[in-house]
Amino acid sequence: IGAQCYALRSKKEIEWSRAMKKKIFAIVVLLLILFAVASSRIKITRVEYSHITHGSWFDTQALNQEIFQKKGDNLLVKVWFRQMTGDLPKLPFVQSYRIKFHGLHQAEIAIQEEDIVAYIEYMGSKFYIDDGAKVLESSSKVLDGVIRVDGVEFKEIHLGETLRAEDETELNEMLGYLRSLRSFHIQGDRFFYSKLGDNYLYINKMDINLGTRENMQDKLETLADMLPDILKQNLDGTLFLNRYTDKPSSGWYTFKRRS
């Protein structure tokens, strides 16, 4: 009987030993996986924009530099935790973004950009505004594809607040013109607003005299129809659309080459 009990105990000890070895092996493998994950450093290799109406401010290299500013910021675990807690750094001209992980070393970033419609220059800085004249960003750089507007006097400008103009009527009218430019898909470099005089739109090497506020919507709509052919000619000079009337006759617009 004693021999049978000893053999039974030995068998149980062997099974227990095997089970412990499996557990230890599983723990070691898990620790190695956790170490691999914890020590993995990611790199953003692809950018996806939800919508873009102007030139992108970032390429992948710039994004990696902006998001991973300090040593260790690109550790996968740290990036995941900061994203979960909303602690990732804010990016200029970006409303929100989300990092999508592809394996242990690569990631994709999905970006929702700020809806910038124009910028104004004030005291040496460029202030970027949205459709409602809210100041979204301030920078010394020019963002490609964003039109500059001049001609409206401002009381003061604060980041994150709506522009305060000396004449709110002028500001609202200027914003209306900007909306029309967007709706007609006219991409200009600069727009000069004038309440009483001639309004000017500048595109490439062409100055476009839009005249006074009268029939402005019709003039912009007409310009949108003409623009594709005009741009192909790469004209250098002034296009006069200031003589537009409700019933324009032939030859109502003229172009004068720059001397």
Outline the structure in words:
The structure is a single chain. This protein is α/β, with parallel strands linked by helices. 34% of the residues lie in helices and 27% in strands. It is built from 5 helices and 14 strands. It has helices at 2-39, 60-67, 76-84, 168-183, 216-232, and strands spanning 43-49, 94-102, 106-113, 118-122, 125-129, 135-139, 147-150, 154-156, 164-165, 190-192, 199-203, 206-211, 237-240, 254-257. It has a 9-stranded mixed beta sheet with strand order 6-5-4-7-10-11-12-13-14, covered by helices on one side. A 3-stranded mixed beta sheet has the order 1-3-2, with helices on one face. Strand 8 (154-156) and strand 9 form a beta hairpin. The protein starts with a helix and ends with a strand. The mean pLDDT is 81.
Give a quick summary of the entry.
Helices cover about 35% and strands about 25% of the residues.
